[in-house]
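Thread: quick sanity check before group meeting

JM: Hey all, I'm pulling together slides for Thursday and realized we never actually wrote out the predicted structure for the chain we discussed last week. Dropping the sequence here so it's in one place. If anyone has concerns about the input, flag it before I start.
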Amino acid sequence: MDILALFLIAAAGMMQGTFVVPLKATTKWEYENTWLLFCFIGFVALPLLLVGYTIPHFSQVLLTSPLKDVVLAALFGVAWGCGAVLFGLGAEKLGVGLGLSIISGLSSTLGSLIPWAIAGPQPLSYSLLLWVGVVVMLAGVVVCARAGMLREQKNKFKTQEETRGRQFAKGLLICIGSGVLVSCLNLGFISGARVTVRAETLGATHANAPNMLWAIIMGAGFLPNALYCGWLLIRKRTWQKFVSRESVSYLGWTFVMGILWTGSLIVYGSGVNKIGALGPSLGWPILSSVNIVTSNLWGVITGEWRGAGREAARIMMIGILILVLAIVIFGWASAKT
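JM (edit): ok, ran it. Output follows.
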């Protein structure tokens, strides 16, 4: 694998592992306030600005691309958007580190195996290593989930809140559902590949061409997020919080979230394009693994594991090390292609 490609994908993973951290700063807003603005900035505004700046004749690209590719990319975008709704809820219930570990681990498994399955015959050594990497990654997710359960048990004992166990179980189910749906982001990138090719044909550079496809996927993904957050804003009357004194600074935090998210897609798209046909299959698990490690480091820094006890922290560290091992295995597999 091109070393620069690996570096770009890892950098994208670090950005994705960081983008949700500003949620902790918008404490006087509800989830729906922050999430709706972030989604508009990160899924609509910035991708459209990027397309306008980097894709020549972008309207012609959209109109002349194969309709099937555009529709499939949009449909996978809607499915991914539903996963993003669950992602925000899951991270809120389980914490940034644990929530992202479960979601990214599951999405990376599906997001890497499906492209492998449809790519045609591959070297046996590559296929075996890919499956070993997937198994190792899933083991890491299980270990991280176990650490989270121990953390919740410790907190339950300290606070005597009988509902914490049920809340953890609910959050775990939400994260599992999110992990399955979030993998559709990678599938959208694969199914809309000819949109990227069309953008290059009409003058976009190889590095910038994926921006057109991301705009389609992100725009479609915004719809379920906007509907859900809009419903919450009306039902709970939390739309009034947009005119609070903190709104200006909170808007800045949502803009940071959008920059990190959109930037991660640009960097990831550039990285997988350097690998070739198997880029999504190899790049997705590496992206997710670095995402998991980064988010857990932020979880420690922001105090999510404070008071969890040594055993929970030790098991979480083992889980992170297993996920790092998965990254190494995927890198090894790439050398066999």
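AS: nice. The chain has a mean pLDDT of 80. The chain is about 80% helix and 0% strand.
JM: adding both to the slides.
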